[in-house]
Write a structure and sequence with these properties.
6-stranded parallel beta sheet, alpha/beta, 17 strands, Rossmann fold
């Protein structure tokens, strides 16, 4: 029978602030006692002992995450620029239960001294600004993927994470918690059971096509100007907003970042190409198609989806290994090594190494613990709250995520330009190519700048 853990909120936060959280892959310093950590243990604590949470962004994914967070703490505030969505979260018995405060301005959540943790599940182009400001406000951060909209945003997020190492900065890449699929695949590659990896294919599907979409009146309750944030001010079109933002480069990277944040992340984790200074050195975007005409990498019409719908983008690493990011074939990751190959996605893992159990003696608790940065294997949010309490690097850490996102953004830039671009992983720059390098950052609308800490 598992021992029930009683941790006061003061102790919960005090331990996390006292422990030296890992930064950039280094181990936490100081001894932190092992605590068997479960959502049930949190749920059984008195209200005064539980972490207090603010949820920023309460669309479909935001609601799902909020339900998960509520197992570990008490949700005091919900925020969304769409008033209907905020109200829905407030009165959901699994989330706000009619008691949480609502707001359309995330800053009202960050300024509250009684909020310990924020969950950020907004559109992609808002993630880094809110996350950096949340760290500045002393909050632990859970942010959905993809964290960044541009290469520069990754550097800004990393600087903030390094400045506030006592705060957890966790990314919602939940595939890192799928033991029987992705963790097993990563472990097999790390153990060399497939031999030297020559090629990895990340199947991420293509963006939909659609449009032209008409200009419409902004729905009541939606703050369209706030929704746009740092992005250029444009008329409201229903298909630019909410879920469909993914298919517009103004707010996202299409499938390159939507699914790439998952599969490219796993691929580079397996290849050990996910630490600062790692990544591809060349990305070829010749084989890519967009649903609207482009000029110099910029869409020439503004009333249609514009992210790539058909592509195969090879990314070459200094080791010679090639990672192909493609819209074609099955969604999932194919690892091809000198000894064997395997395919993995969210529902299956296949190949001779799996069928013959090549890893039967090398995929136990210690192997999982190594993948979890010294923590025991457990659920995605369990790991987040454990790391808040104990310190240390979470399994879905911001540092490795930024390196994977660099690859995703480079693939999108190369595809937009329709050619090969170079990348210097050490300096995180695109050398000798002013046109491509100009896509590394975007000038935000005045008043929506991201803090530089």
């Amino acid at each position: 029978m598992q021992r029930r853990v009683r941790t006061t909120r003061r102790g919960f936060l005090g331990t996390s602030l006292g422990a030296s959280a890992a930064v950039g892959g280094t181990a936490a310093t100081g001894f932190v006692p092992y605590i068997p950590w479960t959502a049930t243990a949190f749920a059984n604590q008195a209200a005064t002992d539980r972490p207090r949470i603010g949820c920023i962004g309460t669309g479909s994914m935001g609601l799902g995450d909020a339900v998960g967070h509520a197992k570990f703490g008490d949700i005091l505030a919900v925020c969304d620029v769409d008033k209907d969505r905020a109200e829905r979260a407030k009165y959901d018995v699994r989330i706000g239960n009619g008691k949480a405060d609502t707001s359309g301005d995330y800053r009202k959540v960050l300024e509250r001294k009684d909020i310990d943790v924020v969950s950020i599940v907004t559109t992609d182009h808002w993630h880094v600004k809110i996350a950096v400001e949340a760290l500045q406000a002393g909050k632990h951060v859970f942010c959905q993927k993809p964290l960044t909209l541009t290469l520069e945003e990754g550097q800004l997020a990393r600087a903030a994470a390094e400045k506030f190492p006592q705060l957890q900065f966790f990314i919602g890449t939940q595939q890192r918690a799928q033991k029987d699929q992705f963790l097993r695949a990563v472990n097999m590659v790390h153990k060399g059971l497939l031999g030297d990896i020559q090629r990895v294919t990340a199947g991420i599907n293509g963006s939909p096509t659609g449009g032209p979409f008409p200009v419409e009146s902004v729905p009541g309750g939606l703050d369209w100007d706030m929704w746009l944030g740092q992005a250029p001010k444009v008329p409201y079109r229903n298909r630019r907003c909410h879920y469909e933002f993914r298919w517009w480069y103004e707010y996202s990277g299409g499938k390159f970042t939507d699914w790439g944040a998952h599969h490219v992340d796993i691929a580079q984790w397996a290849l050990k190409e996910n630490t600062k200074g790692k990544g591809p050195i060349e990305v070829n975007g010749v084989d890519a198609r967009h649903p609207v005409p482009f000029k110099d990498g910029v869409p020439t019409v503004d009333d249609c989806y514009n992210t790539a719908y058909d592509f195969s983008v090879p990314c070459r690493f200094a080791s010679g290994t090639e990672l192909v990011i493609t819209s074609r074939g099955d969604n999932g990751i194919l690892f091809e090594g000198t000894k064997g190959r395997l395919f993995v996605n969210r529902s299956k893992i296949t190949g001779t190494p799996i069928e013959e159990g090549w890893d039967k003696e090398s995929f136990g608790d210690d192997d999982l613990k190594a993948l979890y940065n010294g923590k025991p294997f457990e659920g995605h949010k369990d790991n987040f709250y454990r790391c808040i309490r104990e310190g240390g690097l979470p399994v879905s850490d911001v540092h490795s995520h930024i390196v994977a996102m660099n690859t995703c953004h480079l693939a999108a830039i190369a595809a937009r330009l329709g050619r090969t671009i170079k990348w210097d992983p050490a300096t995180e720059t695109i050398p000798g190519d002013e046109q491509a390098a100009a896509f590394a950052a975007r000038k935000p609308r005045e008043g929506f700048e991201i803090p530089r800490v």
